[in-house]
Amino acid sequence: MAKKTLNQTNLAALGADALATLLMEISTGSADIKRRLRLELSHSLGPQELAQDVRKRLVSLQRSTSFVGWRKRKLLVKDLETQSAMILDKIAPQDAATAFDLLWQFVEMAPALCARIDDSRGEVGDVFRAALAALPNVASRANLNPTPLAAQVWTALTNNTYGEWNGLIALLAPTLGPAGLAHLKTLVQAHGDTAPPPNSTNAVAAAFIRELRGATGAAGGNDRKSRLIKRSLQEIAAASGDTTAYINQYSPADLARKDIAAEVATLLLADAKPAKALEMLQNATDSRAGQAAWDVAYIACLTALGRLDDAQTHRWVCFTTYLNPGHLRDHLKLLPDFEDVEAEDRARAHLRASPNLHAALNFCLNWPDLLTAAEVIETRSTEINGELSALLAPAAEALRNRHPRAAVILWRAMIDDTLDHARAPRYAQAAEYVAECAAVDADITDYRQHPDHAQYVQSLRRDHVRKFAFWEKLTAQ
Which domain of life is it from (predicted)? Predict the structure, then answer.
């Protein structure tokens, strides 16, 4: 029986002639298998022969204009993966320079393919991202001239239609080296100094669009060109380890944003400049975004400056304000024995009294602290919003074994919301929740101020007697 097992050893025993005959038979009617066999034959003649065939296939894929639906997507993905494998596994070990050119051509196909394919699952995008990630390894062996490479990188970034070249500077920074990065910086800055001729079509069109947008439109410094220049110069600075140049790309308005201030502060901390980092954070007055990142950076600055008590205080503030579990864990971890127990008790008390019941419940589930979750539910049952099924349904499931009464309160909240607002698409789910309530009824010896299961179902029949679709769903349970 072992000799019948389908493996490489047993197949090799068939002999070359038998395998060749078998492959010809299998490849009949399969363009994909035929293409793969031709590539293997080309490889046997040398890397340049294989490279020529791969290049032809890439050109063919790029020139094609037919739409690729989900039925043909798998075949295309397999084809792309085959071409990529030929470049990386067959050509690169023998001719890295040719492999680099082919891999570059491969990534360049992304816009043409993305424009004619249904890639809702991201499979095609993943193939191109993998190819881009492989560039540095091939480039390091290709003996590339940094100056032309810098020009090649900049050309790619200025035509980065689908984000296929995102992160390219960081990936190729080791290959570019100081000379290549310096030349790339010159190209980026020169691009910033150029503008379309006053009477050109582009200039007229841009002026017309600005006029349509009005004085407060998203023109000027917020256009694609300025964003590209800023991002590129920052990536060059990051690759060069030049924190100052990176920060200089931000305007005062940018630095007033908490998310950007947090990013810059993190860079300054890495440069052992905690005082300057803290000042940067304290000057960030725009609170529209980035509070979480700002808090992390702020605590890191305080810690680096030796202000440990202040850091602990801010962790507690973050917990009480935003119910952030990470900050509470860090706060408790740094407390002496017994003090951490007292702090946990204070945290539970805060959760029970939190103005945002649902945020408190979510916190308890993620901690996890099911006892406190049950207490919050039972003491504040009238505040529960039954429409929040994405939170309440998993919460009820988590509570059903140890805290069935709390679970029933959540199920009932969702049932009541569905029926009170006649949400017909949810009737089947509501009927399932009624069944769940019945399943744990025997585990509840005391419903306290809440009606028992029979009384609750009776109230549903009284208040929603005409919702026939719901009762049909319930009967079918």
Answer: Bacteria
Please report whether residue 316 resides in a domain.
yes
**Has residue 229 been placed in a domain?**
no
- Tell whether the torsion through CA atoms of 289, 293, 295 and 298 is positive or negative: negative
Are 152 and 187 a contacting pair, CB within 8 Å?
A: no
Please check whether residues 297 and 391 belong to one and the same domain: no
How high is the pLDDT of residue 120? 82
Same domain, 309 and 384: no
Q: What's the domain range around 278? A: 252-334
The SS3 call for residue 287 is coil
Question: Does 363 share its domain with 471?
Answer: yes
Average pLDDT per block of 10 residues along the chain, 477 residues long:
69 72 70 71 76 93 90 89 94 96 97 89 93 98 98 97 95 98 97 63 48 46 81 96 95 95 97 97 90 97 98 98 96 95 97 97 97 98 98 98 98 98 97 98 97 98 96 91
- Rounded Cα gap, residues 53 and 49, in angstroms: 7
Q: In the chain, how many domains are there?
A: 2
Crossing angle of helices 389-399 and 357-366, in 10° steps, is 50
Among 137, 156, 33, 152, smallest CA distance to 87 is for 137
DSSP line for 76-88? HHHHHHHHHHIII
Gap between the Cα atoms of 42 and 306, Å rounded: 65
Q: Which of 248, 254, 242 is nearest to 290 (CA)?
A: 254
Say what the pLDDT of residue 217 is: 43
Residue 261, domain member (yes or no): yes
Are 317 and 377 members of one domain?
no
Global pTM value: 0.76
Task: State whether 434 and 471 are in the same domain.
Answer: yes
Looking at 299, 334, 369, which one is the last position of a domain?
334
Task: Tell whether the torsion through CA atoms of 40, 42, 44 and 49 is positive or negative.
Answer: negative
HEC secondary structure over 434-470: HHHHHHHHHHCCCCCCCCCHHHHHHHHHHHCCCCHHH
Closest CA to 37 of 13, 60, 61, 21: 21
312 shares a domain with 361: no
Query: Given this model, what pLDDT does residue 19 score?
Result: 67
**Residue corresponding to tokens 């080309």:** 42
* CA-based max dimension of the chain: 84
Question: With contact defined as beta carbons under 8 Å apart, do 384 and 408 qualify?
Answer: no
Q: Which of 334, 365, 386 is the last residue of a domain?
A: 334
Both 310 and 364 in one domain: the answer is no
